[in-house]
Amino acid sequence: MTTNSDPELSDGLKTFGAVAKALREAADLTQEEFALRVRFSAAYIAKIEQGKRFPPGNLPERAGEALGPVAGKVLAAAAKSLRRKSGLASWFLQWAGIEEEAITLYAYECRGIPGLLQPEGYIRAVFERNLPPLTDEQIERQTSARLERQTLLAEHPNTAFSFVIEQSLLERQLGGSAVTRELIDHLLNVGRRTNVEIQVMPLRQEDHAGFEGEMYLAESPDNKWFGYTEGHRSSALITTPNDVSVLLQRYGKLRSQALECRATVSLLERMRGAL
User: Fold this and answer.
1) Domains of the chain, earliest start first
2) Are 117 and 54 in contact (CB under 8 A)?
3) Separation of first and last alpha carbons in the chain
4) Is 263 helix (H, G, I), strand (E, B) or coil?
5) Of all helices (H) and strands (E), which one includes residue 246?
6) Taking the CB of residue 158, how many other CB atoms lie within 10 A of it?
7) SS3 of 225, please?
8) Which of 222, 220, 228, 227 is nearest to 245 (CA)?
9) What is the 8-class DSSP label of residue 91?
10) How many CB atoms lie within 10 A of CB 110?
11) H-only helix segments in 39-176
């Protein structure tokens, strides 16, 4: 993803996390034990307790099963204070949680290289061109956060990652030829992972299902699908089954229209050699 906003740790998220932690500790459960009972990863629960992730809607219900009905009601009441405006940072916090738990993750990008695939040089090139300008401290903080997200690819070997990216994003050479060489090398390296598929959409493609823009899709551990889209300082989490189904149909068509993985590798190697 190519978000330029720096999600802030709101007081509401910190408060919810503190309440969740207090209820867990009152039940004499470790984060690992609690995570197992509510069927989320321990890392995800840790970030919720730290106020770094928006809690999923079913957490209070699952917590009620694990900690008792009173605890469930307390968390449900705390969650009501987290009603969000449709701002990019807020939506991204929730999507980041969905992304971390996903067993399948799809991404189609026509604006910039997906965040999970960006090497450090490309990340810095993106943030250095942000408007309004970012301070050096903000660039460092956001670069570190994006690199941390990328550990998903290695830490979730059983999650199927699929990326379709436009060839034009590589032809653009954002940040210059050196950054583009690093980017292509990185894509070739990441694409060797057994759980990652990278496909390039060629410049010329008469049949193209992505003309309405970028899209992200994730399948949860209980096999529910979510969609996510972004615009200028705005974004949307898509949960309605009919709407998610439309995105899944479009993404399936995009995969069939893009270069298959071996052809993508050949193209990337030719582009790398031409730099």
Assistant:
1) 11-80 (1.10.260.40), 102-274 (3.30.870)
2) no
3) 25
4) helix
5) helix 241-257
6) 6
7) strand
8) 227
9) H
10) 17
11) 42-49, 59-67, 69-80, 88-101, 120-128, 136-149, 152-155, 167-171
The pair of three-digit structure tokens given for residue 8, joined into one six-digit string = 């802030």
Residue 156: count other Cβ atoms within 10 Å of its Cβ.
Answer: 18
As given in the structure block, the two tokens for residue 138 are 């903000």
pLDDT tens over the chain, length 275 residues: 444 443 444 677 888 999 999 999 999 999 999 999 999 899 989 989 998 888 887 899 999 999 999 999 999 888 876 654 332 345 577 788 888 889 999 999 999 999 999 999 999 999 999 999 999 988 888 888 888 889 899 989 999 999 999 999 999 999 999 999 999 999 999 999 999 999 999 999 999 999 999 999 999 988 999 999 988 877 888 999 999 999 999 999 999 999 999 999 999 999 999 99
Measured from the Cβ of residue 177, the count of other Cβ atoms closer than 10 Å reads 10
Query: How many CB atoms are located within 10 Å of the residue 26 CB?
Result: 11
Which of 209, 222, 225 has the alpha carbon at shortest distance from 106? 225
Give the residue carrying structure tokens 């003309």.
Answer: 211
Q: Are 238 and 225 in contact (CB under 8 A)?
A: no
Rounded to whole angstroms, the Cα distance separating 235 from 87 reads: 7
- Residue 236's nearest CA partner among 83, 97, 94 is 94
Nearest to 44 by CA among 27, 26, 58, 64: 58
Q: How far apart are CA 23 and CA 17, in angstroms?
A: 10
- Phi, psi angle pair for 67, to nearest 5°: -110, -10
